[in-house]
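Subject: for your reference before the review

Hello V.,

The reviewers asked for a structural picture of the protein, and I figured it would be easier to keep everything in one thread rather than splitting it across files. Below is the amino acid sequence we used in the manuscript, unchanged from the supplementary table.
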Amino acid sequence: MTLDSQTIVKVKRLIPEAKLPKYEHPGDSGADLVAVADCTLQPMQWLAVPTGISAEVPMGFELQVRPRSGLAMKHGVTVLNTPGTVDAGYRGEIKVILVNLGAQPFPITPGMKIAQLVVAPVVRGLFQEVDELTASQRGSGGFGSTGIAYVEVND
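And here is what came back from the structure prediction:
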């Protein structure tokens, strides 16, 4: 459901101290997600950090969990599966999989902003099997086809 170009997302606090997602500034595309846990993320460790909330996402939309640029730049902490997806049918607690790529332990405290939540429309594809695909200028050129080096891993 939309209201004045805004999409209504119902949010339930699972614990009283949980904070609802909140936009910090007018025009922000991401609303801040806040931790309810007290833990320390060691270098090269990842954890599913609870937010204490669940949501009812309208059909045709998803919530995208994205990193906070300040945490990434200052501490090397980011969202491991970025963007994480909260599907319309999911009603469980929203948790953020944070990874510490930095050299120092990173303390997480209740009330800390740990990620951003973006409401995004979803377009579902109709996948159709065919014997041939239409030719294109790029063809099958994939990783590194534009001059960027990469290493391919074969099983």
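For the response letter, the relevant points are probably these. The helical segments are 69-75. The first helix runs from residue 69 to 75.

Happy to draft the paragraph if you're swamped.

O.
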